[in-house]
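Chapter summary example.
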Amino acid sequence: MGDNNGMSDKVKSKVSKVKGEAKEQYGNAAGDKEKEQEGKQDKVKSDFQKKKGEFKDKL
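The structure predicted for these 59 residues follows.
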């Protein structure tokens, strides 16, 4: 049976994804490759957090 921990990770996942998209778009528009890379890393982190939340929900 799942608990709120899985939901918390899913919410964090959404926040990281939005933050990553914003950084990536800003970096792309401003020509800031470092910021663009940070955005991509945040999106990868988002995917991990989502999977972690889904796993916790199955426990």
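To summarize the output: The mean pLDDT is 92.
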